[in-house]
Amino acid sequence: MKRVFASAHVKRLFSALAALAILELMTGPPGSALAPTAGFTGSFGEPASFLGLFRTQRWVLFLFLALVMYGLWSAWLVWGQQVRTATAKAVSAPRAATRTRPVRWGMAVVVLAVALLLPHLITDPFWQAAMVEQIAVYVLLALGLNVVVGFAGLLDLGFVAFYAIGAYTTAWVTGALPTAAPFGIHFNNFYAIPIAIALAMGSGIILGAPTLRLRGDYLAIVTLGFGEIITIFANNLYGITGGSQGTNTIPHFSLHVGPIKYLWGLTPVPYYYLTIVFVILFIAGFKLLEHSRVGRAWTAIREDEVAAESVGINPLKYKVMAFAIGASTAGFAGVVTASQSNTIFPSSFTLQFSINILVLVIFGGMGSITGVVLGAIVIQTGSMYLLHTPPAGYQPQDLYIYLGALLVVMMIFRPAGLVPSRRRHREIGLAEKGEGHMNEVLTGDTP
Amino acid sequence: MGAFGHYLTGHFDTLRLEFWALFVGGLANGVLYGMVAVGYTLVYGVLRLINFAHSEIFMSGGFAGYFVMKAMVGTAVPSGFASVGLIVAGILVGGVVGAVMATLVERVAYRPLRRRRAPALAYLISAIGASYFLYNMAGKEFGRVPISMPQPYINHPIIHIFGAPVQMYYVIILLAGAVMFLTLDRIVAKTKLGRSIRAVAQDAETASLMGVNIDRTIVLTFIVGGALGGAAGFLFGMGTGVSNTMGFVPALKAFTAAVLGGIGNLRGAMIGGFLLGIVESLSVVFVQAAYMDVVAFGILVAVLLFRPTGILGERLGRAA
Predict the structure, then answer these.
(1) CATH of the domain at A382
(2) CB contacts, 8 Å: A228 with chain B
(3) Which of A24, A278, A281, B83 is the 20 to 30 A CA-CA neighbour of B38?
(4) Least CB–CB distance from B67: residue in A36, A398, A408
């Protein structure tokens, strides 16, 4: 009997059942405190249809899918290696081709052309607004967090704080807050950019310098707390921030250079182009940064801090730098969002926001700029699609359940992300072989 | 004196008058922080990692206790032995559910990564993912509004300390906390399990050579920490109500307490909890209640700045 339970097949079947049960609960109906079992019973008892092929109850579907998963899993264990070598062989030639410089530039041009044409191809107002507010801005944010998580290997769970600092700075500089604008002048939004970047960077340094001297995970929890604190201040400093009401009088971006006069307005398309310009600037900047002396220092610290220090790299300096650059990108994105929406509410600066950005980076592939941009586009488009055309029984808050699960699943199965950075991929591989000093974590019984 | 002087005198007067009432309330909160902090410190001891999902283990204990109370407390508020029985039942169920959740978290978010020898960043990300998943899952299944727990006892002042009345609720927390802390202290200091936890914390490789089963020790560490966290969740929920967001702030404070006492140090976590609770409670005299959480955060940053090893120092794997 004991042999049966210990056998790999039973374990696999059990894991498949457990995974599918969780999936059923995630997609099932909600419960409430008064009817705490409604969610559980409904998740298994409600009628369901399988791709419209046959109608049944959810538990039948659940058993069926669990068996399918068990079968696929078993098959993967038998033939997985062959499949993997075959695909590696098949993609090796095209992949090598994409690595040459002309092809890469060509692809970049095509992507850029598509990005520029997109507002003319998609004219649905929901999607046009989503393209700016939920996709382009999030690409910007993901690029910024990628510097912290991807390049420097630090975990920042309070990214929202710097975004809020950027947004509030915009409101302050343009005179939309109860507190007086600097020097009593209502500045143009473009002037808010350097100020917001400076303030976000400054607060990043103040927060990062004491914390980054210590272990990496202290940064995670301090930033987690900082994200919460910022909201408390924004909510309670009525005289300065406008309290929980926030403000809704932030002007749009406008340009007055000589004869050129342009005012960005409520329509999303001009903002889309503006944000795209910013995104391109940031991508170019971060690409240069990645391969600069600074970027190489980050790689060295990430891979082996002791060795990096012994060749004269000051880890604290470079970590604080990465953290501050990430923070300033978030501050910058805050300027764009605040100007675009004209409004700020403290309640929009939540932990959910920080985690959402983290998911974009992790899913795309930490350290890979292409991956992060792609990850942001895929995840944000997906979540907007769920908001736009929700499947039966889907509630908007369910998204966060999926995002949380996605983080765990990515870490278990594909820690380097969808489009892995080559360097990162190799590092994780090395760490798994026990090489390098990334590995401080107890790994259990070694064979 | 000046206006600021009057401001201070006024506040110190309030502090003098309210001191013992605030002290007891703070100490009770501090016991809860300490109970959660122990979970952080134990896991930190063996894995050198912050368990970000601990806040949700706390929450699961709160919900478990809520459902027990909902099922067992009738329309009339119980008293006497019925109250004692209910509270013990709540603590036990909260603790068991907390322990089960901690085991599941270890199983799903930690063990696969340990098998692959993943870098530390991966653990933090998967733990925060698990935490976020549970946080939102609880919101889906049990609603996203806070609910108050049916009270298993009548809350009234039962003793006076220096003229300050002490509520029944605080007495319960202090008693339960004392029992649990003493038990835990003895477990870690005297039992075989405690010895293996300490051995793994000191030097995992050598411990495994000496015949300590590391996987088993890690799971048991999660279970012990989870049980305390879950029980604390029930006790906390009894006073403040339960919701899917209930774990976030207390867990952040408990982590502060663990760092304050010296992370990895069991007694440090308890003392850090008491201290943080008391300081936070007394700070109400000087700052608005809305900024209470800011005080705890300020303490965390100050400790990391000036004494990152905490009051008692990091003492991984010493007999408490």
Answers:
(1) 1.10.3470
(2) 248-249, 252, 293, 297
(3) B83
(4) A36
